[in-house]
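S1.2 Input.
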Amino acid sequence: MTRDGVTFDEELAEGLAVPTDGWDFSWFAGRATEERPGWGYVRLCGERLGRVDSVLDVDTGGGEVFAEALGLAERVPGTVRATEGWAPNHALASAALEPFDGVVTLVEDSAAPLPFDDSTFGLVTGRHPVSFPYAEAARVLAPGGTVLVQEVGAGSNRALYEFLMGPQENRDAEYLDDVRAQVGAVGLEMVRLQDALTRVEFFDLAAVVHFLRKVLWTVPDFTVEKYRDRLGALRDHIAEHGSFVCHSRRTLVEARKP
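S1.3 Output.
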């Protein structure tokens, strides 16, 4: 047992019981913390939104972050569109964006072309997309338009996933050059590229389990059954040190279509 008397299996069950719909992380209060990058993506997005007549948000999740940015804009664009690949999130996003007359399209194949005409949007955004489609974004972006993306950078939470999975391929040092190459290859001009490592701290095992279920790309094959032994070791680490610390990587990409 841990100091608070909760067993290992009870902690696992608690982490498994929490719904994973949407991008509301309020359940983690008191259980985990994550530092935010200094640039303030939502604020930046709100500023850009006030300057355009049309916007597309890619992989909007439950629409919470996009709706927050729209709420900060000096004026809401006349055309507000978003895509999402998971049906439960699609319903949440549709409700979140309804006050802004937003329309969310379900796009289950992340590799499929975006379902919009060429040169449609003045702004294309994305916060933590699974894989941002720079070529498609450039296609649907109007000349003079802007892409604003906050990516999950290479090696994000490496200490956590390597604790569970063992050593993994490490191309972290080449990542920013890869992003520059992607942006340039589709004819976009880089305006801003900024990178940050932000501290993440987990205070109990249930928080880790829920996080790994919610942020699927951290450990893509995660199940509590497969990783039970390593989860036990991680629980021991938290008991000994008071928490488990790793670092997320966030990358801000702002680019312009000539």
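S1.4 Remarks. The CA atoms of residues 2 and 239 lie 7 Å apart.
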